[in-house]
What we know:
Blueprint: H1 4-21, E1 25-30, E2 36-47, E3 57-67, E4 72-87, E5 93-109, E6 122-141, E7 147-150, E8 177-192, E9 196-207, E10 239-250, E11 256-261
Antiparallel strand pairs: 1-11, 2-3, 2-10, 3-4, 4-5, 5-6, 6-7, 6-8, 8-9, 9-10
Amino acid sequence: MKLKQPFIIAIILQFISSSIFSQTTFKSFQKTDGFSITPKIGLGSLVGELGDVWIMNPNVGFCLEKGISEKFNLDLEIIGGNLSGKDSDIYSSRFQTDFFQIQTLLFLNLSRFSKNYIKKNFEVKAYTGAGWIWFHSDVYDLKSGSFLRTTADGTTQHTQLFQQSGAGVGETGIFYTRELVVPIGLFLDWQFGERIGLTANLGYNWVYNDKLDATNSYNLQHPNIIGGVNSYSETANDGLINVSVGLKYRFKVNKSKQPRGV
């Protein structure tokens, strides 16, 4: 029995030392995206008094994207284009708007919650963020075509007021009204090879104002009064629907392996 104890102790000590000093390694996938650029083309429609979801206007965009972790990406995006719409029942008028928008988005990659996401070339992302939209909106009478009002005047910026006559220009030219915008949506990403891919986007932009179509809830003749006989709006903040597709180029391959001890 005495001869066996040193042998058993030696085996135990060897096992402990091998566990401490001799770790086994394996490969762990990591997929933090590098920088990528995506030019986009799409269609937009306005949700508002004079808006119609079926009246779509072309727009273009450009975004710069970078991963900050496996599941989260940051995106800086610029969008520009036109909007239009009309209402013949209540307002008997039409509007036209040109706009451009700058926003920062936070993407949550839903596909990477799956254990085998590393093998997939198709990903689904949800996003939200914040930005600014600059716009110039004009409204015309639907029957006569006469000019009614515009947002393109210095006194109309960041207020509920409109310029109700004139060409809609200030001392230094046309003014663009600037408002806060909060985008939300879904983003689809197909990867064809290591660097090239296609994207699709369906988004809604909540605008912190009700005059993207130059129509809001304030009284037309008395701007300090909401509602009443002369009120020309009964809805809240306007919104912008955007559908687009893009061609994505990745500057850096985003699939990597990292050894890790056990």
